[in-house]
Amino acid sequence: MVNWFTPDSSGLCGSPCDSCCAAPTLLAETVSASLSKCGFSEFPGHASTPPKVYLQSAYSHTGTAVWNGGGTAGNHSNSTVNFTSTTLYAAPACTSSTTTTGGSSSLSHEDGVDEPCEAPTSEACWAVFDPCASICGPPMGGDCTPAVTTSATEQHSTVSTSGSGPTGDGETCSYSETITTVLSDEYTTAALNGYATAALPAYTGTFPSSSPSASYDLSANANTVSLSQAEYKFRFQPSACYQISWVERFIGVDAEGNPLAPVDTAMSWTYSGATPTGYNPADETTWPESPVYNLPIPAANGETTVVDVTASCACGS
Description:
seven-stranded antiparallel beta sheet, mainly beta, 2 domains, about 50% strand, about 325 residues
């Protein structure tokens, strides 16, 4: 709200020591940005509060599976895998890249025929003869139940078993496999704030608005942030002594989004100078201006605005 004395019939203060004190014009520019985290969530059942996100996932898979058919047929199969895959997200653009090493191979010899499989850069040839279900599982006494351990950032699955044929004909199997996934390089909220702040557009210097606003809004899961900052100034009709007073008011919000009690910062600025050359009370572009003030990004969820703008003139004092 702006308070001032009643202006003359023109609605303007036509001289530095008029009987009125006209309201200043508030000029502002607000710039804003919004950004979200990207990457890998913590493993189910182990999420933090708020949940954490990681930029890197490293996957490794090693294993061997061997079956000897026994008897006179000479049938046998074997398979190996030694494969790693690492996926990395690059913040803040959130482009991802994956690098892999190793691969897999298998050889199945059935009825005198070799069926080889080579996959030097993938897991495609691992255990193509299904060592658990048909070879090293219950028919041969093996236990293929994986032992799984999980934390927020790591998951390990391990199987190690062997067995022999029920008829005593020399049929044997062995099977071991380990799969591990490790998350690392947490995408912190501090980093998210820094990237979002860096993404704020530069001020244009045009002051196109009359409502400066600085805000900060971090989502409940700390995954997305929206923020803004502003700069503002006042344009006014000069008086021998012209003082502008206003309040920078921050209203925060609690975890449920409810507004908190306002936090006010009282501000003022006084102009005491000669009427500028070229000043025309009917042309606002010729009016003098205050210094530029800044509304920085708040440190917590909420918004800072400019309120309670008043002007007072003390001509001849």
